Amino acid sequence: MIDQILTDKACQAFKAVFNAEIFKAEIQLQKTLKEFEGDITIVVFPLLRYSKKSPEETARILGEYLQKNITEVENFNVIKGFLNLAISDKYYIDFFNDYKLNLQFGFAETNEDIPVVIEFSSPNTNKPLHLGHVRNILLGSSVSNILKANGKNVQRVNLVNDRGIHICKSMLAWEKWGDEITPEKAGKKGDKLVGDFYVLFDKRNKEAVQELIDNGMEKDEAEKKSPLLLEAQSMLKRWESNDAGIRQLWETMNQWVYNGFDKTYDRMGIEFEKTYYESDTYLLGKAIVEEGLEKGILFKKEDGSVWADLTEEGLDEKLLLRADGTSVYMTQDLGTAKLRQDDFNAEKLVYVVGNEQNYHFDVLQKILNKLGFDWSNAIYHLSYGMVELPHGKMKSREGTVVDADDLMEKMFQTAKKMTTELGKIEEFSKEEADQLFEMVGLGALKYFILKVDPKKNMMFNPEESVDFTGNTGPFIQYTHARIQSLLRKAHDNGIDINGTTEEIELLKKEKELLKLIAEYPEVIKLAAESYSPAQVANYIYDLVKEYNQFYQEIPVFKEKDQHKILFRLQLSRFCGYLIKSGMGLLGIQVPDRM
């Protein structure tokens, strides 16, 4: 690629002209600003300490060397400390002919040796998946795709939080007020049924707490001594003691939830290579803690609780086992991390978890390191911001969350309404129309969430996401359909669009499009390095904007020169490939007709 050629030659130039050795990383390339002539700009300011000359003089000398020694550089101009290089049409035509039929353009070959393990979703079995999970799932799945495109052997795993006090709250509520109800009897998905009982527990527990307060007890004490909470805590202890009846109820209700999760994952297009369960890993975590205690790495307080002292690491003391011997989240995460590393011996252990858990993963890594696990440095917390709706935050225990299934159905219905109003399904059968609505609805949802940098909080607006204009999934999908329609028209007119494109003089819009296409491999690379699908999403949007301007300004079938017609059709096809490829990395399908 031209960036590599320019970088190599710039280093040679400094050796030949300025007698200075510079590193490739010191060569800063960027796109030339639209108001200036040129295609690629070299920023010379960081290089002045080697040239010992002014910015303008350094840029001029470097530009003359590159123009003389690189056939692809036609001319240059200098604006202060910026060297703007004009790249020849021939370079872009040659690039185009080399890659225009490569459906894997920008992708690296997979290295099957050392895997990268990515954990995402990680739901609790006391409620259905909701909008918060949706961002987690889409982010984890897309990052998996992007890392795989960069040649990584990606293993997608799920950790199901299937034990703990929150699970016991749902179980206790079902025992008390469920009247033997099942998902089949209720006519609803099992995860939704169990979630209803979690909400019911919270409602009844608040009533019990209020009754204690009314009888003169302080609020903090009332919340700790609520009879319902004490019953749930007792149930957790019985579960950890392998009480047969409690275990049977737990298995039954969890299976209801798993069946519900599977349906949600299937509609969302999500798969995992392996699923871990906290009920299997928490004992391993407890064993790790006990071993650390025996070695004197951890310590026990007077009440019998076990702690890690992280004050030397700049943190505080961290609880690992409660006084009653029950484990906490950190305990089971220690076990899960150890089991996962044993299973995969991974290059990287990536956890896709919200930014409210930043401290937790900092502690996890430091405790593992303290316990002597050198692979702890492989842990990477892919921290992301919260997602909210226009009406505010969601609360699971109060039942104010946006259910993932309901959200996907809303997206389907919104896509149906807007697509029908725009008259884009006039020749579709009902089955074809429903497939399109699903593709557009889920595409809108996924794109709207993934176009935002993971680190940022975001506001999700379903109606705005399904807009057919602007930076949205449907706008990109429509452009892909437009390209396919153009190619079908060429076929119907008897035009064979295969063949080598002859060297032609590129129009400005054609060259701008080719320059953007050439950036795709670097975009995929940067998206992997930053764990950010937003890099891909916004690149595809820029490509689509550029293509639509090309489509509007430059005629295809009105052109008399057959070579130019062929080139523009092939250029359109290549853009279609990249749109499909990039949206695929986001987990989004694109239609051929709209």
Explain the overall architecture.
- With 594 residues, the protein is of the alpha/beta class.
- It folds into 4 domains: 2-87, Arginyl tRNA synthetase N-terminal domain (Gyrase A, domain 2, 2-Layer Sandwich); 116-161 and 273-402, Rossmann fold, CATH 3.40.50.620; 163-269, no CATH class; 404-585, Orthogonal Bundle (Isoleucyl-tRNA Synthetase, Domain 1).
- Helices cover 55% and strands 11% of the residues.
- The protein is built from 22 helices and 14 strands.
- The chain has helices at residues 2-17, 48-51, 55-69, 89-99, 131-149, 165-177, 183-186, 190-214, 219-225, 227-240, 244-268, 278-294, 329-344, 358-370, 404-421, 430-450, 462-465, 473-492, 508-518, 520-530, 533-553, 562-585, and strands spanning 28-31, 40-43, 73-79, 82-87, 115-119, 153-160, 274-277, 299-300, 306-309, 317-321, 348-354, 379-384, 387-388, 458-459.
- The protein has a 5-stranded parallel beta sheet with strand order 7-6-5-11-12, sandwiched between helices. It has a 4-stranded antiparallel beta sheet with strand order 1-2-4-3.
- A hairpin with a 5-residue loop joins strand 8 (299-300) and strand 9.
- Helix 12 crosses helix 13 (329-344).
- The longest helix has 25 residues, at 190-214.
- The chain is globular.
- Mean pLDDT is 93; it is low at 394-399.
